[in-house]
Amino acid sequence: MSLIDTVESDQRWLRAAIELSRSCPPSQTAFSVGAVIVDSGGALVGEGYSRRDDPHDHAEEVALRQLPDAKDPRLGAATLYSSLEPCGARSSRPRSCASLILDTPIQRIVFAWREPSVFVTGEGAELLRAAGRTVVEIPDLAPLAREANRHLLAE
Ligand SMILES: [Zn+2]
């Protein structure tokens, strides 16, 4: 894929992830986030949003759960898109999304909005990078990702 194709496809899938965040059941104590996983051929292999099946669900873990196996061979060349930076620590469950992603061969993670330190300190991007994964932040789309969370932010 050319650089321009990559930029266009990143924008398209990240917007799809943000769109999913609008389906989250409302919460006063957790962000609304959407995530999609796309394979190297541009096919959607997983999608999720916060609290989809359980009040503690994070978008990334819902999307990962749709794969039969964390080592699914399609994941090696896949990209995970999330409206929010994957969490590096969380209070609701023992495993952070960054650590769940590190269990998979997913090499590339794209997100829009860097986690503000409202609930926990966000450091998922740093953890993923330290493990050798490629992390791309697209701050142009952060305002869209924030929109679904306006009620949680003092702006
Ligand atoms: Zn998370």
UniProtKB/TrEMBL annotation:
Residues 8-135 form the CMP/dCMP-type deaminase domain. InterPro entries: CMP_dCMP_dom (IPR002125), Cytidine_deaminase-like (IPR016193). It holds the Pfam family dCMP_cyt_deam_1. PANTHER family: CYTOSINE DEAMINASE FAMILY MEMBER, RIBOFLAVIN BIOSYNTHESIS PROTEIN PYRD, CHLOROPLASTIC. This is CMP/dCMP-type deaminase domain-containing protein. It comes from Salinactinospora qingdaonensis. The lineage of its organism: Bacteria, Bacillati, Actinomycetota, Actinomycetes, Streptosporangiales.
